Structure formats: C-alpha cells, structure tokens
Amino acid sequence: MKSPEPDTTMSEASQIPSTVSDEPRTETLPAADDAMLQDLLVKTSRTFALAIPLLPQPTEREVGIAYLLFRIADTFEDASVPWSRARQTGALERFDELLREPRPETARRRVTEWLAEPLPTEHEGYLELLSRVPEVLGALEGLGGPARRAIVHHTGRTIRGMIGFVERSGRDGLLELRDVPELQRYCYIVAGIVGEMLTELFVLGAPRLRPSAPFLQARAATFGEALQLVNILKDSADDRQEGRRYLPANAERSEIFALARRDLDTAAEYVHEIQAVGGPDGLVKFTGLPVALARASLDRVEEKGPGAKITRPEVYRLNRRLEKAIAKGRPALG
User: 329's torsion region: left (phi>0), alpha (psi -120 to 50) or beta?
Assistant: First the structure.
C-alpha cells in the first residue's frame, strides 16, 4: 500500500515560504534557557528527554523546542472530552497564528485562555508546558533563521491538518477513521510531517548528510508513519475509552501490522543511510533506537494484544545492542 499523498510534496516542503518575520520587535519574548527546556521535556516525555540529548548541537536544541511545540498542538487535539470542537479548533488556529506572529502580549493572553476551566488535560506536565508558551516561543525566536522557519512551517502544517480531523469528529468528540488510507493520512499529519521536519534539521546540522538528503526525505514520512502505527496498535484500547478510534472497523488487524512492518523496514533504511555516510553517532542512536523499540513493541502487541509493553530490561538490552553495533561499525539495526 502506498504512503498517503501529502498536502505538500517533499520538494515543496523543502522550499519553505518566508512566513516568519525576522523584523526586530520592541518587546521581546522571555526565552527558556536549556535548563527550563530540559525540565519541560522531562515533565512531558521522559523518552524524548533521554533521547534528544543524544543529538549534537545545535540540532539538540532545535529538536527539543520543536518537540515541545508539537506537544502543545497534540494537547489541543487530544482535548476532545473536556473541550468542544469549537474550542479545540479555536486553540489550534490561535496557536498557529502565534507561531507565525509571536508577540508577547498575545502569547500571555492565549495562555490565559488555554488554561481557563475546563482545562484541556489533567496531565500536570502538559499544563505547565502551556503556561510556558511565551518562554518556548522565545527560545524558538533565538534559533537560526533556517531552523526556525522549518519548525514554524512544519508545525503549522500539522496544526492545520489536525484542525481538519477535529472538525470531522462527531458532536461527542469521537473520531473514527474510515479506512486504511485515512489512517495513513492521519499518521502523515501527526507524525509524517514531523519526520520531514526532523530530516531538514538533521541535514542543516550535519553537512555530510546533504548528498543523502533526497534519499532521507523520500523515507521521512514513512518513518513517522511507522512509529505512529505502532503506537496506535499498542494504545488502541485506551484510545477507544478516550473517544478516539484510529483503527478502521473494516480493516483487518493483520493488514495494519503488515503495513507497520513494511514502514519499519523503510525506517531502518533511513537509519542505515545516516550511518553509511558517516552521520554523527548520536544521530544514528536517536533515529535507530525508536525503530528497534518499535519492532520489539509490535511483536509484543501482536502476540499479547493492545496495552502489552516491552520491559525496561528489554529496552536496556536493545539500547546496548545498538550502541555496540555502532561502536564496531556494524549496521545499527539488524
């Protein structure tokens, strides 16, 4: 099965429009320092908090800020139970506007709106992140122009795609995907675009990857789809309870598992290309470990059903195996 057709082709996605103003402002946003960014990462995703520091600078800081911005958008998209569709789409639209025109007073006003009762989530880390939107935007403003524009461009594409899915959910907030192509479209919006953005940041930060950019770009969206499909299969029982039915009722589970495995093979090609051209070891680890964990998780879920997880000792062994392979110059993923 083909990957979903993106709303913007890879060549177009690489030619980022200059929608982000570089003009100085009379009032500047307070910028989160490294300690605050790391604290927010820990409170919103321990996995990413451990993985992002593997990256070389400046890519580490860029990816950390990008993750937090996508997490903010995810929080609004996931708020289908406490919020109405109108409030969800309004929050997403205003966040998109704020990314493109990050004015301090507007940022403070939006934070007040987003933290008004009923709250979008009960997750304390996500709520703290929302309260720190001005500081995260200030950190974004401090990035180099190409990286900043790439992050704003791709985050905006995801936000606008999310709005489309929120608008077609039921009045009760229930989102049901009709078929496998729509599932793939959803995965593209929430994860494939992330893969495309990360690829641009990786190439910006590691010049030796530039000759491989077309190869990586062609596989970036599928890489994101692979990880998202594994998460959907693993969390399908919990998602149903929260009003989200990502697995189409008319699709065989075996078809989704097979698609995820093919996508993971493509993701492995992406990792091996970075390794083959001498990309930084940290970048190979950052991209390789999620693939190794996703393969193991997929096997576990297929064997034991939704909710089944790999254990911490298994995670440790997979990580050590990856590190040893990289150190010895062997392919990172078998």
Answer: left
Separation of alpha carbons 55 and 73, rounded Å = 23
pLDDT (tens digit, 9 = 90+) per residue, 71-81? 999 999 999 88
C-alpha–C-alpha distance, residues 141 and 29, integer Å: 8
CB atoms near residue 216 (< 10 Å)? 25
Q: How many CB atoms lie within 10 A of CB 170?
A: 11
Q: Which residue from 319, 321, 330 is spatially nearest to 54, judged by alpha carbons?
A: 319
Write down the pTM of the prediction: 0.89
Considering Cα of 258, then 290, then 150, then 73, what sign does the dihedral take? positive
What angle (nearest 5°) sits at the alpha carbon of residue 31, between those of residues 25 and 36?
170
For the segment 131-159, what is each residue's pLDDT rounded down to a tens digit?
999 999 999 999 999 999 999 999 999 99
Considering only CA atoms, which of 101, 38, 28 is closest in space to residue 67?
Answer: 38
Residues whose CB is less than 8 angstroms from the CB of residue 252 and which lie 6 or more positions away in sequence, other chains included: none
- Tokens in use for 140? 């974004």
- Structural domains in the chain, sorted by start: 33-173 (1.10.600.10), 177-334 (1.10.600.10)
Judging by beta carbons within 10 Å of its beta carbon (0-12, 13-18, 19+), is residue 197 exposed, middle or buried?
buried
Q: Cis (ω within 30 of 0) for the bond into 82?
A: no
Task: Indicate if the pLDDT at residue 6 is higher than 50.
Answer: no
